[in-house]
Structure formats: structure tokens, C-alpha cells
Design a protein that fits this description.
11 strands; single chain; 118 residues; seven-stranded mixed β-sheet
Length: 118
């Protein structure tokens, strides 16, 4: 089992910046990929950015060039630096980890609200 605790959401004006952080605990030895997803009411949860244990990153086209994902394997944390925020970035952001042990599992954080005003 892996527990995830997120922090850093809030309200910001368009063009501003926020940093989301997520700390993992529990069976952290089994964590492979980490990342962030987001969801707005009435829509499916969508990928924002992911990063592997080796540091390979993947970004949604809507955020590429504005958001940066980073990871500290020693601390089992993943951060999302969000710059040049737009109103359409408003969503609940969820931390995600994928674990590989005897089986593979996905774990999710509780979600943190990011609101961008125009």
C-alpha cells in the first residue's frame, strides 16, 4: 500500500504560477512512475504529466512548455511546477503513482483544487 499526501493547490490569477507537491509513504520501494492528473466536473480525469523512476517525462500537449514535473526518488516526492496558468487549467489535481511488485497497482491522492481566475 502507498499513501499519497498532496499540497500546494489554491487560487491564482491567469499568468501566475503554482507548485503542487506530493509525498508518498508506505511501500515506496515498489513505486515506478509518478505523476499528476486533473479532473473538472462532468469530464474524465486526464493526464497532466508523468515521470518515470529514470526521469523520463511525459506531458499533455495542453501543458507542455508551461508545466514542469520533477521527482525526488530519495524522498519519494513528485512536484508539478505550473507557470503561465490559464483559466482552463482550473481543476482538481490528483497525484498518481504506479507500483510494481508482485502485481501492479495505481494509487491516487485525495486531490487538490487549482483555480485560475481570468
Amino acid at each position: 500500500q502507498v499513501q499519497l499526501v498532496e499540497s500546494g493547490g489554491g487560487l491564482v490569477q491567469a499568468g501566475g504560477s503554482l507548485t503542487l507537491s506530493c509525498a508518498a509513504s508506505g511501500s515506496i520501494h515498489s513505486i515506478s512512475a509518478m505523476g499528476w492528473y486533473r479532473q473538472v466536473p462532468g469530464k474524465q480525469r486526464e493526464l497532466v504529466a508523468t515521470i518515470t523512476s529514470g526521469g523520463f517525462t511525459n506531458y499533455a500537449s495542453a501543458v507542455r512548455g508551461r508545466f514542469t514535473i520533477s521527482r525526488d526518488n530519495a524522498k519519494s516526492t513528485v512536484n508539478l511546477q505550473m507557470n503561465s496558468l490559464k483559466p482552463e487549467d482550473t481543476a482538481v489535481y490528483y497525484c498518481w503513482v504506479h507500483t510494481i511488485d508482485m502485481n501492479e497497482y495505481d494509487y491516487w491522492g485525495q486531490g487538490t483544487q487549482v483555480s485560475v481566475s481570468s
